[in-house]
Every structure is written in structure tokens, then in C-alpha cells.
Specification:
Layout (H helix, E strand, L loop, with lengths): L6 H19 L10 H13 L3 H14 L6 H14 L3 H14 L6 H14 L9 H16 L4 H30 L3 H14 L5 H15 L3 H14 L4 H9 L4
Helix pairs in contact: 1-3, 2-3, 3-4, 4-5, 5-6, 6-7, 6-8, 7-8, 8-9, 8-10, 9-10, 10-11, 10-12
């Protein structure tokens, strides 16, 4: 998994340090004298006005000064959402995970769980790049589906998981194409077989079967080519690839 520059962690650490300094000296502190309820209302207003960055600052002050506030779980959820809306998806994921670790029995736990799923999904890169975050997101979203079955959180996680699986299937299919174009048929077969075995519910499965037919035929594996052809016609009879195969009969 690729390591991102620690911009978010430095910013957060710096923000806490600055707030602590202002609280200590009392100079220039816009939140001096405000209680937790007032800070939370300010953060809500900042979010409503689309200023997630300011909301993060206010909520971090709230956590720093009022860690035992009865509504600190709500503040944690709002902080995670603020980071997400600010485009800081890695920190948002961390905040949602922190909530689940601290408040697993809280009624908002399903919301936090799908928030973590959503944050990881937002980190997914283009299919041709490393898919470490995609694999992790599929795992996390799958856990939400299993742990909170029948809830709106599980439904959203399932939709995200399906999209992520599509991304992974596309990644493996493109890898197969890459090797097939270079006449490295054995490598192409490996990647296309991954697609067929792991992502049979995606549109890339019939594409991969057509690729398997052509690659195996190209290197003289007539029995394996015939097997791929039969699977494509039997399991995906209405796919464009099956239509193409019935039309051409053999690989071009």
C-alpha cells in the first residue's frame, strides 16, 4: 500500500498545539469562554455554510477542552464528516475508526462504520494505479454489510463494495490486455483467470473469458480455448462477447 505524505497528521498536530497555546495564554482565542454546546453549534453552522475546514478547527478545540462532554460521540462523528467534506479522506477514516473503537455500542456505530467504508472508497485511485486502498475498502465495506445487515448503512456499503469490485476487475482485465498485446499469452491468461474466478458478477468476466479463448488458442491450447468458449456461451449468453464469439466462431 502506498504511503501518503503526512500532511493531515502534521496539520492536525499543529492545530492542537495552536489551540492549546491559545487556551493557555488567552490571547487572540476566538473560542475563549465558550462551552461545549456553543462550540458544537458553531461547528454545525460552519458545516451548513460549507466551511468544513473551520468546523474541523472548532471541533478539535471542543475535543481538547471538553473531552468528557456527554455528546462527545456526536462531536466525533461531526469531526469525521468535516474531514471528509474537506477532502481529507485518510483523517476522516481515522476519526470514524476512532469512534468505533471508543463507542462500539453507540446507536451511531453503523453510521461510523459506513463512514469508514466511504472514506476508503474515496481514496481509490484510477484502475491502472496501485489498488491497495481498493482492496482494503472492499474488506471494510464487506464487514459493514455483514455486521449491520438490514440497515441503510449496510445497503450503502454494499453499493460501494460493488463499485470497488468493478474497479478491481477492471484492473486485472487491463493487466491481461497489457500482456496479450505484447504476445505474452501465459501472463495474460493468469490475469484474465483472476477476473473470471474472483469477479464473475462484473461485466469484465465475459470479456476475460473471450480473452482466455483467444490467448489459449494463440498458443495452441485447444482444449482450454474450447473450455473458455463454452463457459462464455453458457454463462454469459447475452453478453456482447458471446455475440461476437458466435458471429466470428474463432479468434481473428
Amino acid at each position: 500500500m502506498r504511503i501518503l505524505p503526512p500532511r493531515w497528521s502534521l496539520r492536525r498536530a499543529g492545530g492542537f498545539a495552536l489551540l492549546a497555546f491559545l487556551a493557555a495564554c488567552g490571547g487572540g482565542d476566538p473560542y475563549q469562554g465558550l462551552d461545549a454546546d456553543a462550540l458544537y453549534r458553531i461547528a454545525e453552522n460552519e458545516m451548513a455554510e460549507g466551511d468544513a475546514e473551520n468546523a474541523v478547527e472548532v471541533l478539535e478545540r471542543l475535543h481538547l477542552s471538553f473531552g468528557d462532554w456527554p455528546r462527545i460521540p456526536d462531536a466525533g462523528m461531526l469531526l469525521a464528516l468535516a474531514h471528509f467534506e474537506d477532502g481529507d479522506f485518510l483523517t476522516a477514516r481515522s476519526e470514524y475508526r476512532r469512534f468505533l473503537d471508543r463507542f462500539a455500542e453507540n446507536p451511531r456505530a453503523p453510521e461510523a462504520a459506513v463512514g469508514e467504508c466511504r472514506s476508503l472508497a474515496a481514496l481509490v485511485p484510477h484502475p491502472q494505479r496501485d489498488q491497495g486502498y481498493t482492496e482494503e475498502a472492499i474488506t471494510v465495506c464487506g464487514a459493514v454489510v455483514a455486521d449491520y445487515a438490514g440497515t441503510p448503512a449496510a445497503e450503502e456499503a454494499q453499493l460501494l463494495r460493488s463499485t470497488l469490485r468493478f474497479t478491481m476487475a477492471e484492473k486485472e482485465y487491463l493487466n491481461g490486455n497489457h500482456y496479450f498485446r505484447r504476445r505474452q499469452y501465459d501472463s495474460a491468461i493468469i490475469y484474465w483467470q483472476f477476473v473470471v474466478d474472483l469477479y464473475p458478477d462484473t461485466e469484465f468476466a465475459p470479456r476475460a473469458l473471450l480473452g482466455l479463448f483467444r490467448a489459449n488458442e494463440a498458443i495452441g491450447y485447444a482444449d482450454l480455448a474450447a473450455e473458455a468458449r463454452t463457459r462464455l456461451l453458457d454463462e454469459y449468453p447475452d453478453s456482447p462477447e458471446a455475440v461476437e464469439l458466435r458471429t466470428t466462431g474463432t479468434a481473428p
